[in-house]
Input
Amino acid sequence: MIPWLTIAIALPAVGAALVWALPRTAAKASPAGAAQAAEASASTGGATATAVRPAATATGAGGSAETAKRLTLGFSLATLLVVAAMALRFDTSQAAGLQFEEVHPWIERFGVNYAVGVDGIALVLILMSAVLVPLVVLAAWNEHEDRPDGGRGYFALILVLEAMMIGVFAATDVFLFYVFFEAMLIPVYFMIGRYGRGDDRTRAAVKFLLYSLAGGLVMLVSVIGVYVIGGSFLWTDLVGEGSALAAVDPATARWLFLGFFIAFAIKAPMWPVHTWLPSAAGASRPGTAVLLVGVLDKVGTYGMLRYCLELFPAAVSWFVWPVVALSLVSIIYGAILAIGQNDMMRLVAYTSVSHFGFITLGIFALTAQGQAGAALYMVNHGFATGALFLVVGFLVARRGSSLISDYGGVQKVAPKLAGVFLVTGLAGLALPGLAPFVSEFLVFVGAYAFHPVPAVIAAVGVVLAALYILWMYQRTMNGPTKEGLTGLRDLSARETWAVAPLLALILVLGVYPQPALDVINPAVERTVGIGSGAADTAAAGGSEGAAGAQEEEGDAE
Amino acid sequence: MIPHMDLPVITETPPDLDWWLLAPLITVFAAGVLGVLFEAFVPKGRRRGLQIGLAVLALLAAFVLLVLQVGSLPADEAGVTVAAGVLAVDRTVIFFQGTITVLALVSLLLISERRDGRDAFAAQAATVPGSEEERAHILAGSQHTEVYPLVLFAVLGMLMFPASNDFLTMFIALEVMSLPLYLLCGLARRRRLFSQEAAVKYFLLGAFSSAFFLFGAAMVYGYAGSVNFGEIRAAVDAGGARIFEGGNGEPLLLMGIGLVAIGLLFKVGAVPFHNWKPDVYQGAPTPITALMASCTLVAAFGALLRVFFVPFGGSAESWQPMLWVVAVLTMVVAAVIAVTQRDVKRLLAYSSVVHAGFVLTAVVAGSTDGLAGAMFYLAAYGFTTLGAFAVVTLVRTRDGGQELGDLDRWAGLGRRSPALAGALALFLLAFAGIPLTSGFIGKFAVFEAAVAAGATPLVVVGVLSSAVTAFFYVRIIVVMFFRDSEGEGPTVVRAGAATGGVIVVGVAATLLLGLYPGPVLDNLLPSSETGPEPVAVMVDQASTQTGTE
Output
């Protein structure tokens, strides 16, 4: 049996090591060069030394940086092939259970295993990550040419991140999941802080890291709690009626749920712990933003589905209404703030806060359509928002600014770019025929079946979405062409290749989402079974849910 | 009326010593004595090489002997006591001693490092700083090769400290360990007044805490009628020595526990007994700081674990509340103060205080798992902190070349020397407890033990404190990697083989214990299968009492 998942995790990791270890013509010389420079500055003053060094590194780094890029692209494509081959072998009829399972003991004292496996949801998320990475590499091709290392470190970090992203979705051991969950912050931290844009990037990177770390540490307490109570880290041991964890008293279960949930809510940017996202996305390179918002944040919603719901079914009913309320706030709040943004990167980040509200709403509606819609939304959002970030990135690469006010009338000079911008934007506002529509519709159906009021409130978010997308398009693409934009290049072949696959996926999944749903649905049914079982007991126990619903209704009116 | 106690009858026959089990200690002691003789009889020029060789050989030999000893321990028992029950030799003790020996070896590399023919120590410590006499000694190239025997004596104390099986031996070990360290702290080559101030501060506070310890030991003797850990444990279980029928000796025991705890908590640097740490760590020569931050901490915690788990193990309910308070204070106060620090050595000192707090959570757990967690944590932290201090020794100011403590001026280090900055970043991430580093496994081990023992609130405080500490570790990374130097940045002196070796060992241990900790966790540490109570793996009985009965 071929260990598909391990190969998919190891391949980018090996690639990263190779990119890092590339014979650096510049770096080889640099210790000596630096020493010389130090001596020179000590004796004759720093001027000559500083003049010599950048020149030396620039000539030396050019060649190895080119190799680094090709190597990165090659490895990410190879990973995509592996993941695609794995996806083809995935048995859809068994999508509810874990497939491609591997379990190897890692730290026996704590019962920690290297255990991976995928169900339908994890599979589509891994597939999405594997699709996005090569496109990000392609889009970032020329971004770091002015850096002394030619961006080699950046590309190595992308591969490290890819390994961890696949690992985090594939992990079926809570400890292993936590390891990937936390370790993955470090590459992103450097991608923002070291290779980001603007003067604010350091603060944004630190904010991102501290928020996520704080959430992760809270989760650590719950992870330990799960181990102490459940006696195992293996997900398969922990879920289900017979597990030791299922027998825990409800109060403890709620605390454990909360520990996981806080970490996931920070990750998924849910109001009110979303504030790191706009600044992080604003200070990111577009490629980083794609991976950050498109994949990393999905770990939060994936974790809610996989860990919060399935590990603590007894606690779910208690949290449903608060989480639904927070989701609604995220939907509306994110959309309103998006409308007010002048920075396109931040704008897209705020739209994501809104979209993640839809996803969590779908998850905690605890209905089959809602959760299937949420799972599909995670994938669609990755493609749609990824494409939007990339197109904004193309604009930034041309004009050097991400401010809406710096653009205008781009459509006349770069029609292809404008067209792509429009399509991705429309995908962002869930136009029928494009992929996000299907998932958003499913979330609505699911939410309505759960309770009409949240669905109605969420619908406001759709109207606002039209506003922020179309208004952004109007201000940047229509109207008279702004000064300095007349010579704007249209999409190059490389850039076209970077977004074309995403547009194709958005269209295909918009018209024919069935293959994805076939994979997702069985897995979701499992979660729905657990969640609704808990909801039933809650309903039997009293009219707590109904009372909460009425309160919410009162608030809405 | 003089109470009747079971005093051992003094006989003519000398106690039966198991030389084999004492061999590691004797080796280090003999090497120290030999080193002193070298100082007296070997010509100046040849001393240094000889002393270093002797010290390295002694520590290597001690380590080999320790490894061999594991095999000679009885298979079905935790271990034995030697020398009429004053020292314990069990697997826990050997783990601590082995860790201390290895860490001391690595620190020795750092201590022996020379740049331009000068090491980190004053040419002639007895001269007045800035005087003509001092200049003459510097020009003459004088050096203190006494450093090496002093280090060996300190290591001897550290090896005895966690192995002691009675309070008097423990006190002697404490002093043998501390006195050379007081001296070594004052030997810095640069900023000598600062260094001497640190030494005086350390000595005064240390002497004070030793007095507390001794006073506490006297109280415990009054309660139990013995200083032997095994007998104290029996007395605690029985509610006091025979004179205290009805259990009215409790106050003596409580006072004893409190005072002894002050002495030990001072050595590990827990709040509120932490005040010496930043000053001493900053003032002492950095290689000595590294020795103290790794070996002394391990030794002190080894002793602390032994005292709380063996003699006082039966009265856990009386000391646990105290340690709860100390652990919370340590984790919170030190983390908050650390945020305001601008000097890298002070920051690492406060960080070491916070880590002491994390280990204390495992002590509070009071279980075998807690003991194992603390042992792993200390070993992992020791290597990481050695590496971090090794990096500190390399970053210097441009003028004069003294170490550059001011963090703000470390800007641009990541660009200037990426490998060095990368290594330090790894150490800092390990301190912060990021997965895939040893720091994470250690943190998990202690927190898991604490949660399993029902100390979940303590763990919640611990993770919140971790989040605060992450802030200042991350800040160093920001300064190194994300900021360009304004004006003149630091210079990085080329790492010599010794310092480079220390950093490589630090990186290797940090990664290895983070990625593949299984062998250490499964084989070297006590497992709860032997018994939930730590005393199951910690020897206390005076079993070889041939000469005393």
